[in-house]
Amino acid sequence: MFVASIISEARMIEVSGLAKRYGEFEAVRGVSFTVGSGRVVGLLGPNGAGKTTIMKALTGYHRASAGTALLDGKDVALDPVGVKAVVGYLPEGVPLYLDMTVAEYLGFVADARGLSARSGRARRNAAIEKAVVACGLGGVYGVRMERLSKGYRQRVGLAQAILHDPAILILDEPTTGLDPNQILEIRALIRSLGSEKTVILSTHILQEVEALCSEVLILNEGTIVAQGSAAEIAAGMQGEERIECALTNAGPAALESLRSLAGVRSAERAGATASPARFMIIAGPGDGDSVAESVFDWAVGSGAKLVEMRRERMSMEDIFVRLTREDAGK
Amino acid sequence: MNGTFTIAKREVSAYFNSPVAYIFIVAFLLVCGTLFFFLGNFFAAGQATMRGYFSLMPFVLSVLAPALTMRLWAEERRQGTYELLLTMPFSEGQLVAGKYLATMAVIGVALAASLPVPLMASMFGRFDPGTVLAEYLGAAMAASAVVAIGQAISGTSKNQISAFMSTVLVLLALSLLSQLTVWMDLPAALAGLVNWLSLSYHFASFSRGVVDTRDVAYFAIITVACLYATTRLLAAGKWR
Prior knowledge:
Chain A is of the alpha/beta class. Chain A contains eleven helices and 14 strands. Helices cover 80% and strands 0% of the residues of chain B.
């Protein structure tokens, strides 16, 4: 069991040994992590990694098969209604009652959250107005939601999630399906919300994590495979270096020869052309220079002609793909 | 309690934001009116009674009420709002009770819209208001059981059409059950059980103007049991 600890002053989310089985399938396997207040944490992983399952367990929509989840000190298994009161949730796909107008829907959510009963009609309406302004919904307030664009529906989903001013926001893939401008708008909104709330969001877009999150949990096959800030993960992973080279007259055993060079972590054929034959070599941390020299020396020694060599640091996407694929292969 | 009314309000608006409630009310009045005036031969019968109007109520409700109940949970599942509802601070009991009350409100409107019929019939002769009251009470109680059964079946379905068909089948079976004792010579104990389970058997005394506590208890038990079963279905879904 991989234990991630993302700790700050007050622990808003504490997950311990969380597991969820759907029949024989283990969607989440003993995940543990803590999230401090005022943090924006990204759950990152490929489809089927367990991100949504963890969120459904945190919101009380699904009961965990094992483990505990405390949100703002409340156990979701023992006090699900109490947890729901402190959590704002945007499910994947933004389900809405399309037959209602934005005004009717937000009124329904405000009543569902007990805002009228708790704080009176005036404060209920003030809460709706605040959410409408924050999410930029003033222009579509009286419009039936079936007529709204995907971007506006996403905003309505966010507005319902923040309406009751929850301490914790759980957002499941909040920018999926949006165009680039809408993505920027929603990210700006999440960033501003993150300044005063604990936000946990899932995504499989790495740039989103870099743009929004102070911490990241990378999930694969139901377990946490990396954790920390995006910069920390990058520092840990970017020790590896990618060297792309093209050779003519390389011979059939070139790939095996390249793999056997000192400092080479892996080597693969890149592209289908026979000449020049292209290879992608991954060098270990700090081995980039020596591997490049070795490749050159090997080419000279073997009679191959080195017609191109390009070195590049791994992008965050590469790190993610590599991390999750490596883990899948274990 | 606030949660129940919030859900009920949302459901009533959903019924009336779509053609469903209007179609149900018109169909209910048309079917009952047709049965009463034409098949029941009201004008030729020479009796100021609503018996014809209510005699086939269990069958009318069995066919029409599932059109209201089929969407209750199946539609929430289809559009994903099921997850939204279950992650709001409602208890399962509030969700189920709210949807039940909303559906009963639509049926209540249909029953209220039928009131001109007894008022008009009363102009043709002496009318027993007690009998009419019992008939309306019986219709409301039968509707209550039918709505609770329909909601439970919708709670197991992801598809509205399958929820509708299943509910019609179950309700027609429950309504026709008492006919078994007419068609077949069943042992007394079995016949008693079959009759006890039958919707139309328990409605029969209401349609004669008799309010029997056993019939009231039957409809109340079916209603409470099915509503409770629906709350358990929702809770069980969390373990899936």
